[in-house]
Amino acid sequence: MNGLFLTSISAALYAVITPLLKKAGLNPFATIIVQTGFLWLSILPFFLFTTASKNLSFAGITLPLLALAGIINAIGYYLSIRSYSYLPIWQINLFFAAISPIAGSIAAYFLLHEPISAKMFVGLGIILVGLTVAFR
Predict the structure, then answer these.
(1) pLDDT digits (tens, 9 = 90+) for 103-120
(2) Considering the entire predicted model, what is its pTM?
(3) What is the dihedral of CA 110, 114, 115, 121, to 10 degrees?
(4) Measured between alpha carbons, how far is 72 from 111 in angstroms, rounded to an integer?
(5) Cβ atoms of 28 and 81 closer than 8 Å
(6) What b/e sequence results for 72-96 when a residue is b if at least 16 CB atoms lie within 10 Å of its CB, and e otherwise?
C-alpha cells in the first residue's frame, strides 16, 4: 500500500511540472539547467547527511550504467520540453503516460530478463488502442 501511495504522489507531482514548464516559456537548455540546479540544491543535504552516500558503489559496471541513465534522462527531458511547442499539454502527458509502461516493459524484458505475461500483453495492447483513439 505504501508503494501505491508514494507512486500516486510522485505521479501527481510530475503532472504539475508540465504546465509549470510550459508557463515558464524558457528554452529547453535553460529549463534543464535551472531545474537541475534547484534539484541538486534541494537534495544535496539529504544525500550528505544520510546513509545514501555510503550505499553508493562505483565499483564494476555501476558508474557506466548511471552515466548512461543520466544521458538518456537528459535527452528524453530535452525532447519532452521541445514537444511543448508542437503539442498541447494533455497530449504530451497522455502520450508519456502511455509510452512509459510499454518502453519500460520492453526494457525490463531485455535488460533484467523479467517475463512478460499474457496479462501484460493484453494491458499493453489496451494502452496502444487507447492512445490511438485519443490521438484521432
Answers:
(1) 888 888 898 888 888 898
(2) 0.64
(3) -70
(4) 15
(5) yes
(6) eeeeebeebbebbeeeeeeebbbbe
